[in-house]
Amino acid sequence: MSQVAQVAAVAASRGAPISLAGVGKVYPMRRGRSVEAVRDVGLDIAPGEFLALLGPSGCGKSTLLRMMASLEEPTSGTVTVDGAPPRELAARHRLGVAFQDNALLPWSSVYHNLALPFRVAHRPVDRARIAELIELVGLKGFEDARPRQLSGGMRQRVSIARSIMLEPDLLLLDEPFGALDAVTRRRLNAELQRIWMADPVTTVLVTHDVEEALLLADRVVVLSPRPGRISKIVTVPFDRPRALDVTRSARFHAMVDELTAELDALTGGVDSDE
Amino acid sequence: MTGPALAVLGVVLLLAAWQAVAALRWFGTTVCAPTVVVRVFADASSRRVLLDGAGATMLEAVEGFGWALLAAVVVGVLATLLPFLRSGLDQLGTIESAIPFVAIAPILLALFSRDTVPTAMAATTAFFPLYLALVSGLAAVSPAVADLCAALGAARRDTLLRARIPAALPVLTTGMKTAIPLAVLGGVIGEWLGSSNGIGPIMLVAMRNYRMPMMWAAVVVTVVIALLLYGGCAALEWVTARRFG
Question: Is A144 domain-assigned?
Fold first, then answer.
């Protein structure tokens, strides 16, 4: 299979390619009115690429991600993952997701929450794999804790661990650290980078945080406010791991300024609505 | 003052008001004072009759409640797994709950033996609140969890088993708390339709023979049955809320 050769060629990176062509999404509202969330988005994401969708609130970036996750259908255009409708990847249990709402089952322990992907895929629960990921996200000793006993940051660690449990071909992250404080967020960003480098799979991260996007992504796609359109695509030049020496470099700051200016211009200096 | 203290105060006030109404004879001799009712319970043979009746009524109510719960689970899960059935089943449930006791009684009398009618009546009255609680409980799973299950490629029955049913349990037990007194009510009314067991016939016989203390004792027993079963459901609700809330 050619895919195998390709994976070998780019060393460790792997995953499903994504293709968006002329994608639009219109939500019907009451009294025949409608809201256009996304308009004419075309984008190709390579296998093993880490892509950030950056934009102000309400720019349709989550809508785009939800379409890749098969949680929504585009009203125009096509979304394909691995050359097929996104639904097929999800049905094969090859998709990993983490949302801002951690979506943990409140009645289940950390261990059982992490076993969920195996259970819904009707695969035997791999205890060693769960233990390995609990260790990876630094939650050793919390296996039996219930989500409400954990801090917000710890819950998101569980959520991230769950998303990569079955070594998915595509990882979709919708502001996974959006509700966390700045310090926890920075630490989890560094951890996400480390986790991703251990298995660089195609990843799409939705964020409104410029530094987060530049720290993690290979490319940053800036979206304009409603209706969401691609306004700029930036390739991030820094080598990984991107540690303090990178984030404190003049070049990093220049890129942060450039993207922040772009966002400010897009929102016209007006606060975007939540 | 604390909650339990207020509750005790409320009961004491209620008993005092009852005693006063009886002593002042506002309703002649039809209202017996609590002190008179207590004397009925002190009598061994009356106590035996009341306890036997209470046991029978409790059994009917619980049995009817059990059937209603089973029916609610079957219909509710069906309505959740096959969404196109949902609105039709909801309509049917609403209509069922809107039929007055008096109208449903002849149907039940035709369908069941007189001694089974109380159980059937208890089931009929308890069904709708249980069904409502179950379907709204099964829909109560958070949108994020529903999205997660969809993204993980979970089949509908797996989502039901792993996410919807655990999320439904606290809502269902709250519904059980509402439904169980209705089952007692349905059971007693069912007994009035000619059953030979239970607290209902005791009430009727006492009323026809103008044995007011016995009738009031039977009313008290009915209230105690309803409260006991309600307490059981409330305890169950507390446990599920802690485990699955």
Answer: no
Largest CA distance in chain B: 72
Number of domains in chain A: 1
Q: What's the complex ipTM?
A: 0.87
pLDDT digits (tens, 9 = 90+) for A93-121: 999 999 999 999 999 999 999 999 999 99
* Cβ count near B239 (within 10 Å): 13
Listed by number, the residues of chain B in 108-167 with a beta carbon closer than 8 Å to a beta carbon of chain A are: 142, 144-145, 147-155, 158-159, 162-163, 166
What is Dmax (Cα atoms) for chain A? 55
CA dihedral B71, B75, B78, B80 (to 10 degrees): -120
Distance (Å, whole) CA A16 – CA A177: 24
Q: Tokens 């991030």 correspond to what residue?
A: A236
- What is the spatial distance between Cα A172 and Cα A168, in angstroms, rounded to a whole number? 10
Which chain A residues contact residue B153 at CB under 8 A?
Answer: 90-93, 95, 120-121
CB contact under 8 A, B147 and A120: no
Tell me the pLDDT tens digit for each residue of B117-163.
999 999 999 999 999 999 999 998 899 999 999 999 999 899 999 99
Q: Burial, B125: exposed, middle or buried (Cβ in 10 Å; 0-12, 13-18, 19+)?
A: buried
The angle at the Cα of B79, spanning B74 to B81, to the nearest 5 degrees, equals: 95
Sheet holding A230-235, edge to edge: A95-99, A170-174, A202-207, A50-54, A219-223, A230-235
**Which structure tokens are listed for A25?**
């999404």
**Residue A227: which CATH number?**
3.40.50.300
Calculate Rg over the CA atoms of chain B. Answer: 22
Within a domain: A157: no
Q: Which of B141, B145, B148, B162 should one mutate to test binding to chain A, selecting the residue with the greatest count of A CBs within 10 A?
A: B148
CATH of domain B33-244: 1.10.3720.10
Q: Are residues A63 and A55 in contact, defined by beta-carbon separation less than 8 angstroms?
A: no
